[in-house]
Amino acid sequence: MYIGIPKESRPFEYRVGLSPAGVDILSQNGHQIFVEHDAGVGAGFSDREYEKSGARIAYSAEEVFGRADLLLKISRPLKNELEWMNEGTILAGLLHLASSSQDQIDLLLEKKITALAYEQITDASTGALSVLRPFSLICGAMVPQIAARLLQNNWGGKGILLSGLPGVPSAEVVIIGGGVVGLAATQAMLGAGAQVTVIDKNLSVLEKISERFPRAVTMTSTKRNIERATAFADVVIGAVLISGQRAPVVVSREMVRAMKPRSIIIDVSIDQGGCVETSRPTTHEHPTFVDEGMVHYCVPNIPGVVARTASHVFLNAALPYILEVANNGIDIVIERNPDIELAINTHAGKLRNLIRLNAREE
Prior knowledge:
The protein has helices spanning 20-28, 47-52, 61-67, 79-84, 102-110, 132-150, 180-191, 203-212, 223-232, 253-257, 307-328, 330-336, 338-341, and strands spanning 2-5, 32-36, 56-58, 70-75, 90-94, 114-117, 172-176, 195-200, 217-220, 235-238, 264-267, 288-291, 294-297, 344-347, 350-351. It has 362 residues and is an alpha/beta fold. Helices cover 35% and strands 18% of the residues. Helix 1 (20-28) packs parallel to helix 11 and helix 6 packs parallel to helix 7. It folds into two domains: 2-121 and 307-351, NAD(P)-binding Rossmann-like Domain (Rossmann fold, 3-Layer(aba) Sandwich), CATH 3.40.50; 132-304, Rossmann fold (3-Layer(aba) Sandwich). The longest helix has 22 residues, at 307-328. The strands form two sheets. It has an eight-stranded mixed sheet with strand order 3-2-1-4-5-6-14-15, with helices on both faces. The chain is elongated. It has 13 helices and 15 strands.
């Protein structure tokens, strides 16, 4: 199979679709890999490393997209990149199509492209999102350093030290969603010395958090509880995910308006549309904006700036699935592997495993 690895074109996306170690394994399985020039430079991988692993270097993105039977990306392709792809190509990436523009969906269907969304690959026995998990762990681990910076006066915050000091309370952090991101953020925030409240609708999730982190306060997810918690928070972290769907809005504009002035909102769910009504996507170059007096951080690709780490953990999680698709073809894999079948968003001109409600235009 011809496999293409382009250089990511979205702003401040330094990750790469596969590391040289992954290319080496695919090459040993008889596949031809085309890597765009400097595709891995942001993650610290040189063209020479890819060549030594068996890849051919291509000097235009259009060539990589046009040659590939299987295209390995990180972020969702831009419209012009989709136009370069051949009919029937397999596209794998963190696609988040539930929040994409309709014209992109239409083009995928028109060209009968199979869209394999890594974030929806699901272990059928446990329900775990196998490939998304390491990226979620990175997001959760990075939340304290983001929050600590944004609480500073020079970033528009209220001038609070996240950890506090003897005689001065630490910051009040509210985490909405107790999944992988929420659990990692809880651990990291407690480690940084913050006071943490976790809100989730699943009682067993809250029990697990309470047992593991006795210092954390837990609350069931109701409108009243979210109103109460966000009203006293210095930092609100939105970490709500429904696989294959746009994130539900659980924090309304009225709730944001009732928060303490210059508090911080970090909407980690923004790649699925965001779970805070006032959220809109930002970039690592301009990561924040102020709405209703609150500082919002809504960067969709938070792990994109720790590209080396992200690329290595991604290889560990995704390579078995990539190898299965490359070796067997997508039709056989869809039939035989329910983990991957659950992640197919478009195939043969039809939508699958995707619900688009109030999707935001890019």
